[in-house]
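Homework-ish question, so no full write-ups if that breaks the rules, but can someone show me the predicted structure for this set?
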Amino acid sequence: MTQIARRKYYRKLRRDFDQWSWVTLLVTLFVGVPLLFIFFKLFGGAGESWGHMVKYLLPKYLTNTLLLSLICMVLTITMGVSAAWLSTRYHFPLRKSLEWLNILPLALPSYITAYAYAGIFDYGGSLQLLLQGLSLSIPKIDIMNVNGLAFVLSVSLYPYVYVACRAFFLYQSQNLIETAQVLGDSRAQRFFRLILPMARPAIVGGFILVLMEVLNDFGAAKYYGVNTFTTGIFKAWYGYREPETAVYLAALLLVIIFALILLEQWQRKRKRYHFAGKSQKKLARLEVPRGRSWGYTLIVAIPAILGFLIPVAQLIYWAVLSFHNTQWADLFTAIFQSVAIGAIAAAACVFFAILLLFTSQWNALSGVRTVSRFGALGYAIPGAVIAVGVYMPSLVVDKWIIGVVKDLFSVKIGLLLTGTATALVYAYVVRFLAVAFNPLAAGQQKMSASLSEASYLLGWGRLRTFWKLEFPLLRSAILSAFILVFIDVMKELPLTLILKPNHIQTLAVEAYQYASDERIIEAAWPALVLVLSGTIPVIFLNRLVRNE
Amino acid sequence: MLLNIEHLSKYFDAGKVQALADVSLHTVAGKTYSVLGESGSGKTTLARLIAGLERPDNGTIYLDDTLISSDAMHLAPEKRAVGLVFQNYALFPHLNVAQNIAYGLRNQMTSQREETIRGSLDLVNLQGYQQRFPHELSGGQQQRVALARALALRPKLLLLDEPFSNLNNTLRIALRDELFGILKNLGICSVFITHNADDALAISDEIIVLRDGQLLQQAAPQVLYEHPINRYVAQLFDPLVAMPASLLQDFGFSPSPGQEYYLRAHQFVLAEKPSDYQLKATVMQSNFIGKHHLLEVKIKDHSWKIHGQAHVPGTEVSIGWNEADLLRFPKE
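A: Not a homework solution, just the prediction itself:
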């Protein structure tokens, strides 16, 4: 750069770097601290048992995690794509009910589904009782292993693929399919040669969410005794009491996740999946040939039955069994605290998501906008990793504050952040910011940019325009964002386990503790309340989406 | 000078795409201007730079002798007193007509505000529409509300981005003339962004032609039509026919070697009597295209597409033109 060009560059930078750029960078930094901390901690050396881990445990973590991911990929894509395709393309009995029933498995945390299936296949479990009742007997099916875990995770996570594909199929052009038909493709050829390749971004997008949940899972893997990366982090943290080793494992997991994200982006580069023409005719629904319609119903129903109805039935059965043993006071405390902390975290997430979304756009520097995307990365990061990344720096800050206060006032104070609800809510914000960010960004994209620009030209600044215009127009997106984060926080387990203060008891943690104390039947009530609290918003959201 | 733009440049995609290249122009208060160009010519970018919705990479914009944009400063759009009517009108969907118009009126008392709303609606002939919502209005009515909303603030400068592109032809012409009258009466300097040469001719005191981000010519409509600076500007208004030097010589005209010659397709005269003009031609095809026929005529080994009256294909005609109509440009 010549000197004149450099001077010009700085002049423009001074013009364009304004208060919004500052806020954007500060919010991004705020939610980026845990990841940055883990990154820098890598240079501090591993813990003593790292060598032992690499030699004896890491290969198992790797193969288990890989195997788990592969089986889940096959199962979730098969279930999700077929249910989505049939229910958007054909008329068959119960289609409308199944459409939203196939979303409901998301209301069940996967560790709850795992507990339910463990109970079903156990010695003296529901399946055996049922078969005895029918005077049948089959050999015991052992599901407490990688395959069983993969099955459980698949039936509880396939809706991510289903929802993504359904949205994609709904907006496909009828003309494309008709063209393939005119060109001589049979029904099956049309599906495999046209529909499936075109749906790839939706399938991959949905599956990436599945994969992140698989990598994030702690409760189910722990209960099934399968060693994965996440259980490894817990082992290092609680078993060996070596945060450094946990950080190394977390960092390794991060590398894998980033590699996946990059791989996906590189793969779909330059390809276009959207039909370019205007005036699309939407996909028409076909009648299913007589006699086959209930078959279609069954194909679409199986995932929902496996992922929702069976586990819920098992929970209800347990709930009835444990009715008299239940500590109702404890349960209500847990409900109250879960809802309170969920609402606070959801509000905080929505607040920061709005702040990041709008300030990054108000700022005029594209570089700052690019950096701000890192703020929404937390959702890809397993909860256990974030927990480690929050716990350690908050301890550092606490030590520093205690030192300063002691020096200045000669007073001894306790920990202000570590092990408090503040740190927990902060960790939720880091992890779930993207969950709030995406519906808001989608809502804002639907809103024509010229509306806000018209407001500026009518004399209102950014903040006033937000209050007068964008906030009222984005109300339903904001509500969706709040609800989505709320559900996720209620269900969240690994992060909560590590960071929650002792006096706070959430439903997720309560269910987990009963299950790990071999009192699985008593886990039924907190689990059912969790399912219920997840179900109502899902139905509500479904209606909201349909009304729009 | 109301608006004074000097050496304005704007790049997109980190400097890879140049949207506007060294554009300088100025406007005078009370006059109407059109920025005419194809999509991608930079005309919308120019409007957004003037409104403050984009920041220039180079150059300066002065409004009323006050610097509002340069590479070192940027006055926020809300502080510029520049109005903009968007192509999609950008009416706020959750507010009714009166609330839309009142949106920008902040320092007015309620009674005064109502007076302004009524006055604005009178101006655009929408009396009694206060309580309607945008989705209850037709495209033409929405356009009027958008105009009323922008005018209620009495901006120094009003920008209109493709204001007629969403309207049918009849409505477009009616609204165009009405709009022109309103703006003239108010004496507001306005800049129309358009790709339609007819619109530009009909409503402007001056037309600014942009191509690939460069300003080709700024002139009054008639000057632009009669003395276009190059072939591109000339063909914006009518299809051109290239006149080969050899044919011009046959016609008794001596072309200069460094120049190209063109005639607008409708400026030919045809006669069936072979004696009238020196050039003989054969009509190859004759298609009715509305106001006239599009004729394909063959003269020696040249084939032209010109406008004229119906002829049976195969007819021998003689062809002529007025020498004063010839457009001449330096060879490209």
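Now go work out the reasoning yourself. Hint: The mean pLDDT of chain A is 87.
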